[in-house]
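Here comes an entry:

___
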Amino acid sequence: MSSDTPPIYKHLGHKDRGHLTTVIKATQEQEKQDIMTSEQTFIAIKPDGLQRGLVGEIIGRFERRGYKLAAIKLVTPSQEHLEKHYEDLKDKPFFKGLITYMGSGPVCAMVWEGREAVKVGRQLLGATNPMASQPGTIRGDFAIDVGRNVCHGSDAVESAKKEIDLWFKKEELNTWKQAGHDWVYEK
């Protein structure tokens, strides 16, 4: 027996070992598939999206696409929190206004999970400038000005990890399997 063989094997008959081997292989295959579909992205509905009552619509679009909600909370972020979140924009002329606007009311912070969640999340949101967004995207359907573009979405897997860590504690992230997982993902 190899080193990765379960110790119970020596107590089982040939038929039971075969069954246990099949179960172990199936479990390992499922774990591989789960890893393939488990990229996470950070999506925030900005104060204008909340004021306009768009939370349900935006959540619905991610759910209908097949993504899984791993965390959600309503929070009014502090100036310091927002400055850290947008630190890559601190030298831009619109930075101060962005921080003021984002702190003007609650933000619906969310973590969505699924295959290529960052890339597809950005596609669902549309272009940062709503006037360049296609109809059918969230910004294309619900926004006009860049300064009131309804949502924020992570632009890369690395920034998603950073943003998720900034907005959520580890214990706030939920790990679960959607009942419809096998109807969304072929493999």
Observations:
- Strands lie at 40-45, 68-75, 107-113, 151-153.
- The mean pLDDT is 91.
- The longest strand covers residues 68-75.
